Recover the amino acids of this structure.
């Protein structure tokens, strides 16, 4: 499939990309190449192939879900730029 310069201009406009007129022929060729590659992919027989979310099978690392009492507020508040009376202190934004 071949993309014309007018179609490339329209695609650039829809994508909100500023493309100079002298760059349109190269953009049209590049888009045509992408579409040709997609047409090649459509020729691949994928019957019986399960969809996958990644190329390497891996299990997510999980931690044990345990209810705790916390007890480390001091460690968390030590990272705060301003903490008062055991809470994060932030500037007032509403009058």
């Amino acid at each position: 499939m071949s993309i014309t310069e007018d179609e490339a201009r329209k695609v650039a406009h829809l994508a909100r990309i500023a493309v100079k007129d002298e760059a349109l022929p190269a953009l049209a060729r590049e888009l045509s190449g992408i579409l040709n590659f997609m047409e090649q992919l459509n020729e691949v027989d994928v019957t019986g192939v399960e969809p996958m979310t990644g190329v390497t099978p891996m299990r997510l690392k999980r931690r044990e879900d345990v209810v705790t009492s916390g007890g480390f507020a001091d460690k968390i508040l030590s990272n705060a730029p301003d903490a008062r009376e055991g809470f994060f202190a932030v500037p007032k934004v509403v009058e």
Summary: The first strand starts at residue 83 and ends at 84. Strands lie at 83-84, 87-88. The mean pLDDT is 89. The chain has three helices and two strands.
